[in-house]
Amino acid sequence: MEKFTAFIKDSIEEIRTKVSWPKFSELQSSSTLVLVASLIFALIIGVIDFGFENAMTWFYQSF
């Protein structure tokens, strides 16, 4: 149990002193970029799905 406690204490100390955290503005711009990219990707996948669904409906109705 001592090793585990030491590991937790060392981890907390490393997070506080050795990790460089980004500024809030950097986080905000990165989040905006991820949101926009996700929406564009979802739109592209939606268009492909819509086209594929219509193609399959047309194909099955033609027989």
TrEMBL record:
Quote the protein name from its UniProt record.
Answer: Protein translocase subunit SecE
Supply the source organism for this entry: Rhodocytophaga aerolata
S-adenosyl-L-methionine: is it a keyword of this entry?
A: no
What sections of the protein cross the membrane? 32-52
Superkingdom: Bacteria
- Subunit (UniProt): Component of the Sec protein translocase complex. Heterotrimer consisting of SecY, SecE and SecG subunits. The heterotrimers can form oligomers, although 1 heterotrimer is thought to be able to translocate proteins. Interacts with the ribosome. Interacts with SecDF, and other proteins may be involved. Interacts with SecA.
Which Gene3D superfamilies does this chain map to?
A: Preprotein translocase secy subunit (1.20.5.1030)
Q: Which gene encodes it?
A: secE
**UniProt similarity note:** Belongs to the SecE/SEC61-gamma family.
Keywords of this entry: Cell membrane, Membrane, Protein transport, Translocation, Transmembrane, Transmembrane helix, Transport
Q: How does it sit in the membrane?
A: Single-pass membrane protein
Q: Report the locations given in the UniProt record.
A: Cell membrane; Membrane
- Which is a Pfam family this sequence falls into? SecE
The record's function comment reads: Essential subunit of the Sec protein translocation channel SecYEG. Clamps together the 2 halves of SecY. May contact the channel plug during translocation.
